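Sorry to interrupt, but I need a hand with the structure work. I would like you to pick a protein and set down its sequence and fold. Please put the record directly below this note.
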Amino acid sequence: MCAMTTLVRPPRRHGTPVRIGALAPLTRPGWTEAGRHLLAGLELAVHEANDGGGIAGRPLELVVRDTAADPERAAAAVAELAGLGVAAVAGEYHSVVARAAAARADALGVPFLCSSAVLDALTERPTHCVARLAPPQSRGWSLYADFLLGAGHRRIAVAAEPSVYWASGTRVLRERLSAHGAALTELDVRRLGPAGVRDALLDGGATALLLLAGTPEPAVPLVTYLRREPRLAGLLIGAPAGQPEFAQWAELLGPYGTAVPFLRYLPEDPGPLAGRVRTALRERLGAAPSFVAFEGYDTVTVLAALLRTHGTDRTRTARAWPDVAVDGTRGRITFSRTPGTGLWQWDAAPVQVVDRDPADPDRIRILHTG
């Protein structure tokens, strides 16, 4: 287990700090760029909460644990954080890791606000302890399927790796597409390799290929290979999980990384709060913040409001999710029970299908919203 890292520790002017545990993938094989953005958002909101008086005069403190995309490590971190007396646990990006964290938080009675993981079945049973900001996969990926249908695609392939998350996404896509007469073909990207995927696409006549695989391996070399194949010049390459959101994608792929539609969870018309937070996050990150950074900021904003209103007792906090009504960077946040998820869910999270503009890779084009 990694040593405790406290990234935001204000002076103890008004008593002991109120601690929030934070989970993020900060080392490989975790998606470290996503973890860095998530942590930047969490940190910024803690800083602003303390500037605003903290929690009933007590400073808010973030206690960070690196999950490294390891479910067992995440579960152990939740248990350790619970022993340290945190008022709640926040964060995590990877869905399978967040599921392990949610199970341990539920077992220990620790409130867990999941920032970014989308897997519908984040908990195996209904629980009062777990809430989530990101939209469930069934909503976002169904919207992505609608985008494909609207663009005229009826034969779609997925280049997938074995994973509960990728399998769940494939199922969502297949159900939505088949309901409208479209077909989905699964390709094992690890077994086939780039040449095998190319051959399968040429044989099957797919007009779109979706990358349900990790970044940079195997997604980046696959995209490079396929973009260089003249017989696939008209192929749409998509990445519903959001790989092109981050700067590393553009750095590794250059022009090959543009025009790859992906999901992100930002509003079409951000308000003044989002604009101010964007500026502050850019200063922290040295780059444009991703939607994951905004999810981190909104997570602490919600928890700070809960703790100010209901105190730091875990049981009381865990029962207070339906009382939340907080203005976040991406809209008014409230929680309700969503069928099939077993947790408290923000139903109004914005969803977009976007891509990077070939004429200006730093510019994001909005292709579809819902």
About this structure: The two ends are 41 Å apart (CA to CA). The first helix runs from residue 32 to 51.
